[in-house]
């Protein structure tokens, strides 16, 4: 599969909207995890957030989704001020979230897990069933295992399920936190192929990932974080070839 960085125009059902983050800060007690950061994800763009462990990457995603308190800043998605939106309602504004660690429902079937991702839509509507078939087309193994309990799936299959569940809401923007964690090299390549396909279909993405190769191939630009701050920004190609980034921030 091609992994070029050309972004395509988003389809009509993914109406263009930019994510704009301004002066975002997150504190845990007296500890500052994220300090006044800012960046933008343009419509149809794929952006990576990279950096060492503890740089504030996951805290940033959780703050965007309202899962941790924000101590400052503003988040806008299109015309919506997300800083005023409760976490449970953010998905209704067109943002999907794939959390670190998958967090599927092990006692439910694959298909019921996927349908839970469509809770903000009509479960019985024809559009939801069409989206379900689209997910099965993207991840054929999920279609084959639709009646199997999610807890019986392998780690890689659960990761596919977590991505598919987020796609069921038909998001305009996907936030993904460490989708390659704990996966074999073959499964990482499979996840990369899916992310590239979604990018080429015009879905905006914000990706937090320790795997530098996956990040640089799946995104068109990157934000480098260090100690809760934005240390560098640039295109994925520029940062991939930057000696300082490879040595200091990625340990390569």
TrEMBL record:
Q: Which domain of life is it from?
A: Bacteria
Gene Ontology MF: a single term? ATP hydrolysis activity
| Domain ABC transporter stretches | 19-252
Q: Which PROSITE patterns match?
A: ABC_TRANSPORTER_1 (PS00211), ABC_TRANSPORTER_2 (PS50893)
Q: Which SMART domains match?
A: AAA
One Pfam family assigned to this protein is ABC_tran
Q: One biological-process term from Gene Ontology?
A: L-amino acid transport
Q: Per the record's keyword annotation, is Transport included, yes or no?
A: yes
> Which keywords does the record carry?
Amino-acid transport, ATP-binding, Nucleotide-binding, Transport
Family annotation (CDD domains): ABC_TM1139_LivF_branched
Coiled coil residues, start to end: none
User: Which Gene3D superfamilies does its entry note?
Assistant: P-loop containing nucleotide triphosphate hydrolases (3.40.50.300)
Q: Which family does it belong to?
A: Belongs to the ABC transporter superfamily.
Name this polypeptide is given: ABC transporter ATP-binding protein
What organism does this protein naturally occur in?
A: Actinomadura barringtoniae
């Amino acid at each position: 599969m091609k992994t070029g960085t050309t972004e395509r125009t988003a389809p009509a059902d993914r109406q263009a909207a930019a994510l704009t983050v301004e002066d975002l800060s997150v504190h845990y007690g007296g500890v500052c995890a994220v300090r006044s950061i800012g960046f933008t994800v343009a419509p149809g763009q794929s952006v990576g957030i990279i950096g060492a462990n503890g740089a504030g990457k996951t805290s940033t995603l959780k703050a965007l989704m309202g899962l941790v308190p924000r101590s400052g800043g503003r988040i806008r998605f299109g015309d919506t001020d997300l800083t005023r939106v409760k976490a449970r309602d953010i998905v209704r504004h067109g943002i999907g979230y794939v959390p670190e660690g998958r967090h599927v429902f092990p006692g439910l079937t694959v298909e019921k897990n996927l349908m839970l991702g469509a809770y903000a839509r009509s479960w019985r509507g024809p559009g939801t069933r069409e989206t379900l078939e689209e997910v099965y087309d993207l991840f054929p193994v999920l279609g084959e295992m639709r009646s199997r309990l999610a807890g019986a799936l392998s780690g890689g299959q659960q990761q596919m399920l977590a991505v598919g569940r987020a796609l069921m809401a038909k998001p305009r923007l996907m936030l993904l936190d460490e989708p390659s964690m704990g996966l074999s090299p073959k499964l990482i390549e499979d996840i990369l192929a899916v992310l590239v396909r979604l990018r080429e279909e015009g879905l905006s993405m914000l990706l937090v990932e320790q795997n530098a190769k996956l990040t640089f191939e799946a995104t068109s630009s990157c934000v480098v974080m260090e100690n809760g701050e934005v240390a560098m920004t640039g295109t994925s190609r520029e940062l991939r070839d930057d000696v300082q980034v490879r040595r200091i921030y990625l340990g390569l």
